[in-house]
Specification:
- There is one protein chain.
- The protein has 183 residues and is mostly beta strands.
- The protein has one domain: outer membrane lipoprotein receptor (LolB), chain A.
- 2% of the residues lie in helices and 51% in strands.
- It is built from one helix and twelve strands; from the N terminus they run ββββββββββββα.
- It starts with a strand and ends with a helix.
- It comes from Oryzias sinensis.
- InterPro entries: Ependymin (IPR001299).
- GO terms for molecular function: calcium ion binding.
- This is Ependymin.
Length: 183
């Protein structure tokens, strides 16, 4: 599928693969942060507690501890239904998408975060999620081209040039790391 992430400082668009049971995510993204563009290929292996930053062009790989918890692409049991709506039109059959919007709070970066998530009525596919860890800043995550299942399980295997790479100790927190936990 695809995902876009927007904050006041960040705009990113990514192709993503998601394995909820295996707690694995692969993001290949391009974006802009603080007026600088970036490309990022990230493999998140939450069960193992590792994150790989992969540069296929240079055939380099960085392995780091994954500091965030895995959040499944699902509506939490304690969420409250805000309402149901149709995206698009109800005037002609097939021109609208029935969605449900839910709200609640979750732990994110060891803080309480408020969220507002919209999912399809049938299949419960994510459409978008708004997340705020304070009253001023919101993160908008929009999903598109969702795919049921895992078309290519190999995306969750680090490339061969990542074998034997040493674990890096980070002196500072990755500025994008909290975004990974929004899944």
């Amino acid at each position: 599928g695809g995902v876009s992430i927007v904050t006041q400082e960040l705009a990113a668009f990514a192709k993503y693969s998601y394995d909820g049971l295996g707690k694995r995510i692969r993001l290949t993204e391009i974006g802009s942060y603080a007026n600088a563009t970036f490309q990022l290929d990230v493999l998140l292996l939450f069960k193992q507690g590792f994150m790989y930053k992969i540069n296929n062009k240079d055939r380099t790989c960085f392995k780091k501890h994954l500091m965030e918890d895995f959040h499944p692409l699902a509506i939490p049991n304690d969420a409250s239904l805000v309402g149901q709506a149709v995206l698009g039109s109800t005037s002609v059959q097939g021109e609208g998408l029935l969605v449900n919007t839910w709200t609640g709070q979750m732990q994110l970066r060891k803080r309480n975060a408020k969220y507002l998530s919209t999912v399809t009525e049938f299949g419960c596919f994510p459409v978008n999620t708004l997340v705020s860890t304070d009253s001023k800043a919101w993160v908008l995550v929009s999903f598109y081209n969702n795919i049921m299942g895992i078309p290519d399980p190999q995306v969750f295997t680090p490339p061969t040039f990542c074998k034997g790479v040493q674990l890096e100790e980070e002196e500072e927190e990755d500025k994008h790391s909290f975004l990974y936990s929004l899944f």
